[in-house]
Specification:
By secondary structure, this protein is an alpha/beta fold. It contains 14 helices and 17 strands. It is 35% helix and 17% strand.
Length: 399
């Protein structure tokens, strides 16, 4: 089993624990509009506080330029964080230096202190060791519970982890264990469901997956490019015609690796992309010249259903059609409900991630039914691409 240091390896009683969380949540008019990341971080903070630690939370927020500004202050998330924790949170108006030290110095075991936005200092994104040392100076132990930021070699995710005793928080631990079960040491056969608009943004991902999974299901605009590469006329559908050679190369690697490539056999087509647009289902060899392929059709759903039922593990990234607009959400909804049902029946282990993926599964109402749904966008994608994540490597991850 893949190993890494977790909170079980730490004695935190009476210690100051620096926790790198991801509190970069959407805020409108000073109010948090989606507290998912806060809610997922809360168990780690609650456990540390219950064990008698002084819990010091650090995070980035927004994209500030030129130093502190009110719009990017983490002060705005305090009410939502306090609700999630059920306890008061003290705010430090800086993340390093005297103001941070004073706020921490006044805290007692079980207290939670939130530091101001890390990105108010240029040293954060530069992974500057002097800035990292100023952060490390504030605590005794470091816990990273921000897998969503683990692909970035920043001061708070990489350098600090090498300056203090370090471990993964419960959310990070859950992510790593789920990902390890899905691709590192999976129960086979393994299927990957990959959708989205373009293959140009997912070349590394596709190149890695065809070598590691047994079935690769493609949908969305990227499937159109693969169909075009097989001399299928795709009408006016979204298609990267200039990527046809790369699509053929990926298909060749899939064949050589024993990976079955599953493309749509029918599609929902319309002449315009708008809600309620008149549409019809046609086979992929009958796409009209003015047609837009906006979703997979029922025969494709049935094919995917048959293939997934033969699998033990399913990894999902990206919708299979224009799920944001009815009726072009039906294919993604149907396949996501198939995977959800197989998960509930303990037929498959299912792991999904990526921004559009989470939104699509939420739209279908099945997020809670998957084995694990990651809210980490870039980090999840880079893991699918087979890349080493600096924030994970710093915690002692090895296979």
């Amino acid at each position: 089993m893949t190993r890494f240091r977790s909170m079980d390896d730490l004695d935190v009683t009476g210690r100051i624990v620096l926790v790198r969380g991801d509190l970069n949540v959407p805020v409108r008019d000073g109010l948090v509009t989606d507290s998912t990341r806060i809610d997922r971080l809360a168990p780690t903070l609650t456990e540390l506080a219950a064990k008698g630690a002084i819990v010091v939370v650090m995070s980035h927020f927004g994209r500030p330029t030129g130093g502190p500004d009110t719009a990017n202050s983490l002060r705005q998330v305090i009410p939502a964080l306090e609700r999630a924790l059920g306890r008061p949170v003290t705010f430090a108006t800086d993340c390093i230096g005297p103001r941070a030290k004073v706020a921490i110095g006044r805290a007692r075991s079980g207290d939670v202190v939130l530091l101001e936005n890390l990105r108010f200092h240029a040293g954060e994104e530069k992974n500057d060791r002097k800035f990292a040392a100023a952060l490390a100076e504030l605590g005794d132990i470091y816990v990273n519970d921000a897998f969503s930021c683990a692909h970035r070699a920043h001061a708070s995710t990489e350098a600090v982890a090498r300056m203090l005793p370090a471990a993964a928080g419960r959310l990070m631990q859950a992510e790593l264990e789920a990902l390890a079960r899905a691709l590192d040491k999976p129960e086979r056969p393994v299927a990957a469901v990959v959708g989205g608009a373009k293959i140009s943004t997912k070349l590394d991902l596709l190149g890695n997956l065809v070598r590691r999974v047994d079935r690769l299901v493609l949908g969305g605009g990227m499937a159109n490019t693969f169909l075009f590469a097989q001399d299928v006329a795709v009408g006016k559908s979204l298609c990267e015609r200039e990527m046809a050679e790369q699509a053929r190369a990926i298909a060749a690697v899939a064949r050589d690796s024993g990976c079955t490539l599953i493309l749509p056999v029918d599609a929902v087509v319309a002449t315009e992309f708008k809600a309620g647009a008149k549409s019809r289902v046609v086979t992929v060899d009958a796409i009209p010249e003015d047609g837009l392929m906006l979703d997979i059709g029922p025969a494709s759903v049935e094919l995917i259903d048959q293939e997934l039922r033969a699998c033990k593990t399913v990894v999902w990234n990206g919708p299979l059609g224009a799920f944001e607009i009815e009726p072009f959400d039906r294919g993604t909804n149907a396949v996501s409900r198939i995977v959800a049902g197989l998960t509930r029946d303990r037929v498959v282990l299912s792991v999904a991630g990526g921004g559009d993926t989470v939104a699509a599964l939420g739209h279908a109402g099945v997020v809670a039914d998957f084995s694990y749904v990651s809210t980490a966008g870039g980090a999840f994608l880079e893991w699918l691409e087979g890349k080493s994540l600096p924030g994970v490597a710093a915690l002692g991850w090895h296979g």
